[in-house]
Amino acid sequence: MLTAIRPTREKLLRAALTLVARSGFEAATTAAIAEAAGVAEGTLYRHFASKDDLLIEVYRNLKSEVLTAVEDGEDRAASPEARLKRWWLALFEAYRSDIEAFTFGQRFMESPLAQREGGAAKQRFIAPLAAIREEGVRAGVFCDLPQDLMASLFIAPISYLLKQETQGRRWSAAELEGAADGVVRSWRAG
Amino acid sequence: MLTAIRPTREKLLRAALTLVARSGFEAATTAAIAEAAGVAEGTLYRHFASKDDLLIEVYRNLKSEVLTAVEDGEDRAASPEARLKRWWLALFEAYRSDIEAFTFGQRFMESPLAQREGGAAKQRFIAPLAAIREEGVRAGVFCDLPQDLMASLFIAPISYLLKQETQGRRWSAAELEGAADGVVRSWRAG
DNA sequence: GTCTATATTTGGATAGAC
DNA sequence: GTCTATCCAAATATAGAC
Questions:
Q1: Any idea where the domains of chain B sit in the sequence?
Q2: pTM of the predicted protein model
Q3: Mean pLDDT of all residues in B9-23
């Protein structure tokens, strides 16, 4: 993410992301962001109207990146269960590949800025999942609970396992397989 | 929680909790906390050495309250699967009964203060869960994945579903039953 | 576009009267 | 124990030279 088309702007975005991920929102002052980006504090305001705008931009960028990475791996021919498992693993890997971005996202969502953002990105994540669920419910392999509940059973473990990776726990491929299988079972008709 | 043995102190603790839950960590300034508690700003420092100490105290109190509430409902005679489900529902209800405390906890854990707290409370949550898992693995009903992975599959949906309750989604008893059953299935041997 | 310097506000914390 | 008044540091944002 954050390609170098507009170098200073991208440096500021990545500096803010890194600061928040490593030291929390409190640490991401305009002075600290500018210093980490290697520019003067005043320069920040040539690229963003405010600090909040900068942080919201960071969040939108990273959501977009993760989504693009995940949408690639789809396989529409497979069974609902296989597709579910594959998508779970793909989403996990997408976040894991930029763990600082993941941590930023977690913190952003617990900040007051989250309300200003709106949550438009969320729907793009939900839609493909809803399609898999629908197909599985029709086939009788998935239980017929509300979509938002099923989505929570799917996404929550990703978030929790990644949080532990930020704290030093590294999940092996076999462990992730096991977790993905667990998530698939949690969706199964009783 | 926050009984009225030391009224001013408890008012400050609850004021801080409410402010963080409703408006985020940024909003919980010493001025705002004191005003919400109905005392002067200087008074805060008669009861706590610093603002951080106050917030850490809030967190420790709420963890302790939730744990006490949950430990009551244990039933050692039941099957591992039944105990797991019962404990999941009990933990959900314990947090739900003070949803502001839950939100505070989420935000606290994403703040730099989390590192200072240490996470001692976590072990008290894990231990009973580990016992249930052990028994189920021996009986061959649960799959044999690492304890921390199993714990994540268990706790993560609680956190996610509660977060949605803070945003207005109210889960019915039937939906929670369904979610709990899903969690139990996620633990089952493949 | 970027820098230096600075205006302005707000935050955490303390002093001292009551 | 509580309040009023205040100090000091830090944070956001702007002005103006280069």
A1: 1-48, 56-187
A2: 0.95
A3: 98
